[in-house]
Amino acid sequence: MKPISGENHPVIATYLTGFVLALLLTLLAFGLVIVGRVCSLGLIDKALCIFPCGEVITGTMPRNLIIVGVIVLAILQISVHLGYFLHLSFGSPQNWNLQAFLFALFIIIIMVGGTLWIMNDLNGHMLPGSPVGAAYK
Amino acid sequence: MMTDSSTLFPGLAQPSQTESSPPAMIFGFWIYLMSDAVIFALLFATYASMSRNYAGGPTGKEFFDLSTVFYETLALLLSTLTCGFAMLSSSKNRKTWVLSWLAVTFLLGLTFILMEHNEFHSLISQGMGPDRSGFLSAFFTLVGTHGLHVCIGLIWVLVMIAQIMSKGLTQPVCSRLIRFSLFWHFLDLVWVGIFSMVYLIGAL
Fold first, then answer.
1. Among B100, B94, B64, which Cα is nearest to B82's?
2. What is the pLDDT of residues B171-187, one digit of tens each?
3. Which domains can be identified in chain B, with CATH numbers?
4. Is the CA virtual torsion B49, B50, B53, B59 positive or negative?
5. Cα(A62)–Cα(B54) distance, rounded to whole angstroms?
6. Which terminus has fewer CB within 10 Å in chain A: N or C?
7. Please, are residues B132 and B59 in contact by the beta-carbon 8 Å criterion?
């Protein structure tokens, strides 16, 4: 049995690499959202007053792209945390930590995916005039 | 009995050898973390389902302060690094360094919790508490559950500091330290999901 976290004696470089990668991905994600808000304003001189609370995003296309970007960056950063900090490795097949993780992931995908699917479907069936349904239009 | 179980399930056979076998205890803690991950995943799903049920109340875009969230993220990320340094020092048996890094970890975690407390306090005092709308209920439940975990982590660091000072870096203490570090790294991992899914996407 090879698997257990903390047993394979990570070196300082492991943590530092993980930290730098995580920091870069965090900065990219925040940067992406700030750039998105600047673009939505369309005015460079308003770029400085973005943090306090910007204006509404105008186009739907950049907003969706930014959301996808943020989700991809989050998945990447979670992988970095799993690999460099929690020392989860995909190396040996006798890895019990990995098997428990994959099982949890399987459960999460079924339950989260199922929840989102059913709740969105129910919202789709709401009457158009009702306040809850209107919020989704 | 030993041979059967150890060949079939080498990970599970460990506890029967000695009560305090660290690998098996760490694996057991890992199972707990995975079940915690399922809880957080479902809180995320609840939040996603309710994230637009404003009931005429405030939207995330109106009150999310990205600069605060960025500093919270930075504090937690740095604390995960210092926690890693404490682990490295413990494997080299450097007691003073372990204590110092754990103290830094505690202070950074405390910074995070105080910032989150300020955010929650100002929201509730402005009448934007969890009772205001479905969105705010889901927001407070998800972010508050993570905050509660960090509080428990802070208590755990203090207990570890006290144990290292009184007992030294004995094998059981180091085993607990490994589990604490897993817990702490896991909390930072959950926070990545929160700042991305809740704050960044909510601020758009």
1. B100
2. 999 999 999 999 999 99
3. 24-203 (1.20.120.80)
4. negative
5. 24
6. C
7. no
